[in-house]
Amino acid sequence: MQGQRAMIKRIKIALVLLAGLSLTDVFPSLKFLSIVTGLKHKLLEAHQKMDEILDDIVKQHKANHEHGRKCNAESGDEDLVDVLLRQQESGKLQIPITTRNIKAIILPRVMAKVQAEVTQVYKGKKAIEEADIQNLKYFKIVIKETLGLHPSAPLITRTSRESRELDGYMILDKTQVLVNIWQ
Fold first, then answer.
1. What stretches of 40-154 adopt beta strand conformation (E)?
2. What pTM, to 2 d.p., does this model score?
3. Taking the alpha carbons of 123, 126, 132, 138 in that order, is the dihedral positive or negative?
């Protein structure tokens, strides 16, 4: 629960940083502005802190598994992290689940929605069959996004103000370009 509060706090900080207009938005060709304004450092720091929190959550679950405790949820039942770690350890999936995938899935709001879906679909079942996974619509979407099959990173459009060569490509004046705001 403490990790969840810390994570929500970090997400709010990152959203505030990303939501505001920065000098790099106004002058995209002046890449040094993100360093001068400190925005890049603040975003990297927020990302690092969130990653540390998620690492702690996964490590805590792994430690519990090593000590023979298979349940970590407050209810005493297996939670989503336990299920994902069990699948990771089994190695039976066509696409292996990495710790990075698990961390991407367990963001608080996403995790709550996935847990609710898993609980609803598998209510009363003792064993999970691979065929049952087809009933987990939201869970499959989260997995696909996590694996990069359907990227969740938003793209924004910008119009160039002048002709310019970029990485060997000529970008003409008034050309619409897509910018990945997460990079």
1. none
2. 0.52
3. positive
Chain segment 132-165, per-residue pLDDT in tens: 778 888 887 777 665 554 445 566 778 889 999 9
Which residue from 146, 15, 28, 138 is spatially nearest to 88, judged by alpha carbons? 146
Beta strands in the chain (DSSP E): 155-159, 164-166, 169-171, 176-180
Three-state DSSP state, 133? helix
Q: How far apart are CA 169 and CA 133, in angstroms?
A: 44
State how far the Cα of 81 lies from the Cα of 102, in Å rounded to an integer: 7
Q: How far apart are CA 24 and CA 31, in angstroms?
A: 7
Locate 77 and state its tokens: 């039942």
Q: Is 44 helix (H, G, I), strand (E, B) or coil?
A: helix
> Residue 7 burial by CB count (10 A; 0-12/13-18/19+): exposed, middle or buried?
buried
